[in-house]
């Protein structure tokens, strides 16, 4: 009988541990692993490195979590997704299986985030997107959240600017067909602009190119011969900068309109004077701090990277994603995936460097946007846009 009891006890204990690992995970470990998958190489490397700056900076300022008086160190584990969808899946799997991450952050580039999302969902490990704005990142995935606004909002913001502030009634579009961000945002902008103008022909044409292209003469020739009053072409910073330069060389002096990927010192460096007057939507602006956390981030950023360094949107968003992960662990008092998911889903008025963040039923951030322009070779704040 004693042997039978001991065997039954061992079997029930084994079943409890093998259910989903939550009983083990609910106990706080000796260190917290926050996994980060970013494009540290490849076409999106600049954005990935900028996002990493914000995450690293937040980790330097807040290297621990504190639960019931217990201070536990945080370790960052990085996996390079190489700006590639397949590599993004590999990077996510590495964070889950090799590094045993408790929370994941990433990725710059919505396509990378969309590809990796099922890995985190299956492992029941919460992931927090910093700058991935495509709605499909979080849709239907209860383990994916984000601190950035999404493209339907950004598309309307820029359509409203074009119609009301710019006074434009005819806009040409150029989209990066190999980039889900560019394709989705241009589509949403066009839909919003048609609704504002009441004119089905307000989009004069849609030019297309692929990531890595360097000659945009065909697209620009079509625009030059059209009735367009402005060009909307959100896309990767390098290709965007080249389009700007070639447009001016073609004698096209139309206003340039874009999205949050334009918040890049590299874009201005490549485009030079051609970027002057360009207008785009962004997550925040250093000249218009939205919270006390904005000031904290900017002061720390300047101290680390130099007084003249520009703290780009994605760096501030990376900072916020890390802080939200820390806050969730402290509030849950656990690294259990479902427990962290539940805490993240209840996020309301979280104070970040890019503003106060409330997450909706899809895990998307309800937050404002700002409009910026390039003036005198520098990025300049124009206006603030409340969420709608």
Tags for this entry?
388 residues, alpha/beta, Rossmann fold, 2 domains, seven-stranded mixed sheet, six-stranded mixed sheet, 13 helices, disordered N terminus
List the helices and strands and how they pair.
Layout: H1 2-18, H2 22-25, E1 32-38, H3 45-61, E2 64-67, E3 70-80, H4 85-97, E4 103-105, H5 110-123, E5 127-129, E6 144-146, H6 151-165, E7 171-176, H7 180-197, E8 203-209, H8 217-224, E9 230-232, H9 237-249, E10 256-258, H10 265-271, E11 279-282, H11 292-305, H12 313-332, H13 337-345, E12 350-352, E13 355-359, E14 365-366, E15 369-375, E16 378-385
Helix pairs in contact: 3-11, 3-12, 4-5, 6-7, 9-10, 12-13
Protein model, in words:
The protein is of the alpha/beta class and 388 residues long. The chain has two domains: 28-149 and 290-367, Response regulator (Rossmann fold, 3-Layer(aba) Sandwich); 152-282, Response regulator (Rossmann fold), CATH 3.40.50.2300. The chain has 13 helices and 16 strands. A seven-stranded mixed sheet has the order 8-7-9-10-11-15-16, sandwiched between helices. Strand 13 and strand 14 form a beta hairpin. The longest helix is centred in the C-terminal third of the chain and has 20 residues, at 313-332. The termini are far apart.
Short summary of the structure?
This protein is α/β, with parallel strands linked by helices and 388 residues long. The chain has helices at 2-18, 22-25, 45-61, 85-97, 110-123, 151-165, 180-197, 217-224, 237-249, 265-271, 292-305, 313-332, 337-345; strands at residues 32-38, 64-67, 70-80, 103-105, 127-129, 144-146, 171-176, 203-209, 230-232, 256-258, 279-282, 350-352, 355-359, 365-366, 369-375, 378-385.
């Amino acid at each position: 009988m004693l042997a039978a009891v001991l065997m039954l006890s061992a079997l029930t204990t084994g079943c409890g541990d093998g259910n989903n690992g939550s009983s083990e995970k609910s106990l706080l470990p000796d260190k917290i692993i926050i996994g980060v998958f970013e494009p540290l190489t490849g076409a999106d490397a600049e954005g990935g490195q900028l996002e990493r700056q914000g995450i690293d900076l937040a980790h330097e300022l807040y290297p621990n979590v504190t639960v019931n008086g217990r201070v536990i160190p945080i370790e960052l584990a990085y996996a390079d997704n190489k700006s590639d969808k397949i590599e993004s899946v590999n990077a996510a799997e590495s964070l889950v299986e090799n590094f045993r991450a408790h929370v994941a952050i990433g990725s710059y580039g919505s396509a990378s985030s969309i590809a990796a999302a099922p890995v985190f969902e299956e492992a029941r490990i919460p992931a927090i997107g910093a700058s991935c704005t495509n709605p499909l990142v979080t849709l239907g995935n209860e383990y994916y959240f984000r601190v950035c606004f999404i493209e339907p909002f950004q598309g309307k913001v820029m359509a409203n600017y074009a119609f009301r502030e710019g006074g434009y009634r005819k806009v040409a579009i150029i989209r990066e067909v190999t980039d889900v961000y560019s394709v989705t945002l241009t589509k949403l902008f066009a839909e919003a602009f048609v609704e504002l103008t009441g004119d089905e022909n307000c989009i004069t044409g849609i030019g297309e190119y692929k990531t890595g292209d360097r000659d945009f003469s065909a697209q620009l020739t079509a625009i030059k011969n059209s009735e367009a009053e402005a060009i909307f072409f959100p896309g990767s910073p390098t290709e965007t900068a080249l389009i700007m330069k070639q447009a001016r060389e073609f004698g096209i002096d139309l206003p340039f309109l874009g999205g949050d990927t334009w918040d890049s010192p590299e874009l201005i460096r490549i485009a030079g004077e051609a970027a002057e007057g360009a207008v785009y939507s962004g997550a925040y602006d250093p000249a218009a701090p939205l919270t006390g956390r904005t000031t904290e981030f900017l002061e720390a950023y300047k101290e680390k990277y130099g007084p003249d360094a520009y703290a780009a949107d994605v760096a501030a968003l990376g900072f916020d994603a890390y802080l939200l992960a820390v806050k969730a662990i402290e509030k849950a008092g656990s690294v259990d995936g479902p427990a962290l998911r539940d805490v993240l889903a209840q996020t309301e008025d979280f104070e970040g460097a890019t503003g106060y963040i409330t997450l909706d039923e899809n895990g998307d951030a309800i937050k404002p946007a700002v409009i910026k322009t390039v003036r005198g070779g520098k990025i300049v704040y124009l206006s603030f846009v409340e969420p709608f």
